[in-house]
Amino acid sequence: MRTGELVARRYRLKEARGSGSGGTVWTAFDTKLRRLVALKRPHGVASAEDRRQFRREAEIAAQVHHPNLIAVYDWVDDGWLVMEHMAADSLDKILANGPLPPERVARIGMQIAGALAALHAHGIVHRDVKPGNILVGDNDLAKLTDFGISTWSEVTGGNDGRISGTPAYTAPEVAAGNAADRESDVFSLGATLYAAVEGAPPFGTGEPAEILTRARAAEIPPPRHAGPLTEPMTDALHRKPGKRPTADRLRERLREITGDWEPLVPAPAPRSWWRRRPVQVAASALVVVAVAVPLVPRLTGADLIGEERTAEPCALLQADDFREFGAPELKPNWGNFNRCDVLIDVKRDKKIDVELQLATMVSQRRDAFWRTIAAPPFEVLEIPPSGPECNRLIIVDDRYGVRVSTEMDNSPADLCRIADIAVERARTVLRAGQIPRRAKEFPPKSAARINACELLPADALPGLNGGVNVFGGWSCKWRSEVTASDVHVRYDQHAVRSPTKGTLKPVGGHEAYVEKKAKECIYRVPYPPSIRPELALVDHLLVSVTNDRPEQERCAAAEQLTKAAADNMNRGVGRGPG
């Protein structure tokens, strides 16, 4: 088969994506439904029985619907399987850059355990769970593929030589010649988690026969880097199948590690405004012919941003854009609610942070603001760096902007080149129309529902003027000319298990942490502290004061403002609906 050929007079082949034990996979374009799909068929050397098995299990798999399973759409032309297309890398390619943190592995594993539970509920055994059959997209959205259709065989002594799965991830009982079942699927997932966090599968690498010998002995080196993942992973790798948790129970135990984290499901590509309003376009076209006015009026920032608290900043970033620099990971909860980050793993424990923020122009630097008066659409300004970083500001209009920053000490890559890639992705989305909306509302107790601009009373600091909204009421700036101080109140999202930055120093009965920098004093207050054990993330209130006064005086002012803001948060000042 070649690029451009049609399969079943409908699917036009685009490119071969790879070849594995189960067959060859192509990306194809569905000319009927106008969408990308994945096509797969068994290798030409597959026996007639293998092909019948391939089709039978494909028919069963098509009945299973789960958000973490690659969907099966159809079976065509005596051998082609039509499946969902996902723009992602397989986990084995991601692991080529090194092992992953246990929390990230738990997020991926939780989703795959859920997919296995769905398959098992339909009587389907996957038989080949391994990193190569797990696709990982933006924000760690993970999907299991090749379920129920892959086999691997090796002539071994003492059995018929027919072993399903991949040797390095094979359960001991399967390596000994027993049929694969639900318990062996759980073992293979445990082995996948082990490889992801430790850097090698539990039975090591080498020739298949050697690996199978080690698998039959079931001797697994104790994990050294698994942290909170150790216990559930070890239970999944138990030598005795009956001692392993079910896939659903494993999912629940991994959920205890991930907390309330959920993958961000990619929003549909934004449609151009003329596709959404065809009647108006037709009317405008007639006017163009008659009086030669512009066909497409420039949408305002209010049109493109929409309601601030429902705009999804992560719609303007795509992790795959940065893959040439290292393994990228989308981080939607890395800071304030108006922010989205991509972390690029360029070395072990060394990451470039690509940060994007939606912002009001009045909150940005004055040297950028004055240039927006007659700025062309989506002009990009360079903002001077204050450290090892590169900053860009996309001007949407005189009301809104999008700020992009890249940062890393001693970066091996050009930070400004990375920033420019992020800028072009954001401009492409903005040119297409309104930014996609968030997939779900903020939880009822989230700080996102409290307007930070209403937390400080006018008399909280001498000469404090009205606050300037940075975006969404989640970040607010004040200036006191009397004390020559800049005051910033904002929110942050913080992993519960990670230590809060700063030194513990309670303020007015509130748990608080103080951090002292040159000319700046910052207080952090967890909110609300009563639900911290229940969540993977906890919101923080940040209050900072910046001036040239002595540190003791500066931090005393910051402490005073922190007490006022935290008191008002607890009283519900500035709280919106819910």
Feature tags:
Phosphorylase Kinase, domain 1, six-stranded antiparallel β-sheet, single chain, 4 domains, 24 strands, seven-stranded antiparallel β-sheet, Transferase(Phosphotransferase), domain 1, alpha+beta, 578 residues
Plain-language structure description:
With 578 residues, this protein is α+β, with helices and mostly antiparallel strands. It is 27% helix and 24% strand. Residues 148-163, 267-297 and 366-374 have low confidence and may be disordered. It has four domains: 6-84, Phosphorylase Kinase, domain 1 (2-Layer Sandwich), CATH 3.30.200.20; 89-258, Transferase(Phosphotransferase) domain 1 (Transferase(Phosphotransferase), domain 1), CATH 1.10.510.10; 273-432, no CATH class; 447-571, Protein Transport Mog1p, Chain A, CATH 3.40.1000. It is built from 14 helices and 24 strands. Helix 3 runs antiparallel to helix 5, helix 3 (102-121) runs antiparallel to helix 8 (247-258) and helix 5 (182-198) crosses helix 7 (230-236). The N and C termini lie far apart (57 Å). It has a seven-stranded antiparallel β-sheet with strand order 18-19-20-24-23-22-21. It has a six-stranded antiparallel β-sheet with strand order 1-2-3-4-6-5, covered by helices on one side. A six-stranded antiparallel β-sheet has the order 12-13-14-17-16-15.
